[in-house]
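S.,

Sequence below, as promised.
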Amino acid sequence: MANFSINELKSLPNLITSIRFFLAPFLVYLAYMQELLLFTIFFYICGVSDYIDGPIARRYNLATELGSMLDSFADELLLLLGLVFIYLFRSEILLDNILLFGIFLSVYATERVLLYALHKGKTRLHLYSGKAFARSFYIFLPIMFYVNNYSPMMYLILTLGFITFIEHSIIYIKYKDIDPEIKTIVKSKYNILSYLSKSPF
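The prediction came back faster than expected:
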């Protein structure tokens, strides 16, 4: 089992990542209280923390295994809570598309099983597809609660999620030893998500 120091936990990138853990219960409370504006502000703060923690870690040579794990866990927590937010703000989005969300959760659960069964949960991937998925999730989830036609944003988020989970699963099955720097199983020049993940938005 890896040993992590207090200094690692207190490093700037990890403190920025921890914002998502800290704000998660407040987001649930705000969704329960139907405080959409405050929820949107705090949710976008979480999105910004996800956007800047990695670049800061790499820029100042502060990238660590702990930081990678915290980043993944924070995103997974917000992703799962996303279903709670949808149900509390606009339950019809979830209920009218229950089969699609059920398939989405099944693909996600399969990816998690493969990670822990084949790699004991140790591998934390940061693929182009995953970055595009996270970015679309943080940008468009709150907007879905403001507009009547939420479908384009919902399908975008779920499609990128499907691509991410499937690509993860292929990597878990294909490779016994996974390069932590792997970004895609498709050549980057043919992978549109590599360009989307590098965009400033």
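Residues 125 and 180 are 6 Å apart (CA to CA).

Coffee later?
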